[in-house]
Structures are given as C-alpha cells and as structure tokens.
Amino acid sequence: MKCCFKILLSFFCCLFFMCAKSQLTITGTIYDSTKTLPVKDVLVKSSGGTTAVTDSNGRYTIVATDKDSLLFIYQKIIF
C-alpha cells in the first residue's frame, strides 16, 4: 500500500510540473537605429500581462512565461 501511494504521489508531482508554465526573467537593452544611443521610456509588454519600462540606459527586466511574446512600444511626445 505504501509503495502504491509513493508511485501515485510521484505521478501527480510529475503531472503538476509538466502542466506548470516556465517563468523566465528576460533582460535586455534597447538602442536607437544607429545602435549607439540607449532609448529610455520604452514600454515592454508580455502577452501574459506583465509590463516593464526601460530606464535611462535603455535596460529592462520583465518576467514572462516560455509561451509569451513581447511587444515593445515607444511613443515620442514633442511639446
């Protein structure tokens, strides 16, 4: 009986981990088209709903799953 319980428990643990999505921490730096100047205030959105904004050095960190895609949005506002 104990052996059967251990096998069943192992099966459910494996099933749980196979169904769970892998969380990834993605980091990067965004540059302008000349690839020399970092771009700040770029919105980074994952299809899973998490967001990040680039800092003054163009760097961002966002948590997403292995199934998510990323969208980068930059709007230059001129007054």
* Structural class by secondary-structure content: alpha+beta
Q: Give the topology string: H per helix, E per strand.
A: HEEEEE
Shape: elongated
* Spans of at least 5 consecutive residues with low confidence: none
Largest sheet: number of strands, sense, barrel closure: 3 strands, antiparallel
Taking Cα atoms only, what radius of gyration do you get, to the nearest Å? 20 Å
Name the quaternary structure.
Answer: single chain
User: What is the terminal-to-terminal distance?
Assistant: 75 Å
Mean pLDDT: 81
Q: Reading side by side through the largest sheet, how are the strands ordered?
A: 3-2-5
Strand content: 25-35%
Number of helices: 1
Total DSSP E strands = 5
The amount of helix comes to 10-25%
Describe the structure.
The protein has 79 residues and is an alpha+beta fold. Helix content is 23%, strand content 32%. The protein is built from 1 helix and 5 strands. The strands form 2 sheets. It has a 3-stranded antiparallel beta sheet, with no helix packed on it. β2 and β3 form a beta hairpin. The radius of gyration is 20 Å and the shape is elongated. The model has no long low-confidence stretch (mean pLDDT 81).
